[in-house]
Design brief:
It catalyses: L-glutamate + ATP = L-glutamyl 5-phosphate + ADP. The chain has about 350 residues and is of the alpha/beta class. It folds into two domains: about 240 residues, Acetylglutamate kinase-like (Carbamate kinase); about 90 residues, Archaeosine Trna-guanine Transglycosylase, Chain: A, domain 4 (Roll). Strands 10-8-11-12-14 form a five-stranded mixed beta sheet, sandwiched between helices. It has a four-stranded mixed beta sheet with strand order 4-6-7-5, with helices on one face. The chain has a three-stranded parallel beta sheet with strand order 1-3-2, with helices on both faces. A hairpin with a 5-residue loop joins strand 11 and strand 12. The longest helix has 25 residues.
Length: about 350
């Protein structure tokens, strides 16, 4: 922890802004209380988080103070990111800290979060925080040197992948489970986080946290670990919120013609291309858009509820008003309210 703080202090000296997403609240609480035997309930985890979060922030505060740096704590849940106004408020807070030369230290608010509002792991949380603050780089530190062609703990011939331009199924299969009993994330969650961040124009690096000067080297053209290049066309702010904030509440299956229109032409999604609707969602909520075989195509804000969309699925736009007795426009999801996920 001291070494990470030292490197962050060096970055600050060079004029860079630093935001830290810190894990370990529950583990810190368990250690501080002497590893108590507790019931395996959500309340027990929240108890440990409540105790551990204060311990954790005290350590970070004391370490950054060695270098004359001030920190500010931010505790977030997915609920803070799902609501557009709360998302903007969180963004304003983190930007205010940065602008006033204070290092934000962010963690999930495990003391109050339930399974419904948890991001779930700090890898994905860090990607969402990167989007919040408009970061240029996201550095994900782990116990491995980066992403390998196979699990290096099991295969001595595994090779480090130095650079990634496309995240495909091959890479997802390579990514394994959690490498530690203390954390909730493994290489798979880091890959998810990298995919989210790079779509917002953020370069991502996965590297070993114990490696010498790993934070400082992330600024170079040849950083340690695996480097994920950002997509050429970064998303605008509203689409970043769609990508980062709301968890999808439903699913829309579309036909091949609609897939080609959405991906290839950047078109809006029309009712005629909808095959099937599942899940419960109201008008204005975020949904997943998939192919008939389940491949994710996009996320977007749906202009119709699940009940209405089920009635107009497959119909021409001019038939919507006759079918429902009203319409909210020709588009089920407007292209301005949709983020295409497929590369």
């Amino acid at each position: 922890m001291v070494e990470l703080v030292r490197q962050c202090a060096e970055l600050k000296k060079l004029g860079h802004s630093v935001v830290m997403v810190s894990s370990g609240a529950i583990a810190a609480g368990r250690e501080h209380l002497g590893y108590p035997e507790l019931p395996k309930t959500m309340a027990s985890k929240q108890l440990l988080a409540a105790v551990g979060q204060s311990q954790l922030i005290q350590v970070w505060e004391s370490l950054f103070a060695i270098y004359g740096l001030k920190i500010g704590q931010m505790l977030l849940t997915r609920a803070d990111l799902e609501d557009r106004e709360r998302f903007l408020n969180a963004r304003d807070t983190i930007n205010a800290l940065v602008e006033n030369d204070i290092i934000p230290v962010v963690n999930e608010n495990d003391a109050v979060a339930t399974s419904e509002i948890k991001v779930g792991d700090n890898d994905n949380l860090s990607a969402l925080v990167g989007i919040l603050c408009g970061a240029d780089k996201l550095l994900l530190l782990t116990d491995q040197r980066g992403l390998f062609t196979a699990d290096p703990r099991k295969d001595p011939n595994a090779e480090l992948i130095r650079e990634v331009t496309t995240i495909d199924e091959t890479l997802r299969k390579i990514a394994g489970g959690s490498g530690t009993t203390l954390g909730t994330g493994g290489m798979a969650t880091k890959l998810q986080a990298a995919d989210i961040a790079r779509r917002a124009g953020i370069e991502v690096i996965i590297a070993a946290g114990s490696a010498e000067n790993v934070v400082f080297d992330s600024l170079s053209n040849e950083p340690q670990g695996t480097r994920f290049l950002p997509l050429p066309e970064a998303l605008e702010n509203r689409k970043r919120w769609i990508l980062a904030g709301p968890a999808a509440t439903g699913n829309i299956v579309i036909d091949s013609g609609a897939v080609n229109a959405v991906i290839g032409k950047g078109s809006s999604l029309l009712a005629k291309g909808v095959i099937k609707v599942s899940g419960r969602f109201a008008r204005g909520e975020v949904v997943r858009v998939t192919t008939n075989d389940g491949a994710l195509v996009a996320k977007g804000i749906c202009g119709y509820s699940d009940a209405d969309l089920s009635k107009i699925a497959g119909k021409h736009s001019k038939e919507i008003a006759d079918t429902l007795g009203y319409d909210y426009g020709a588009e089920v999801i407007h292209r301005d309210d949709m983020v295409v996920i497929q590369d």
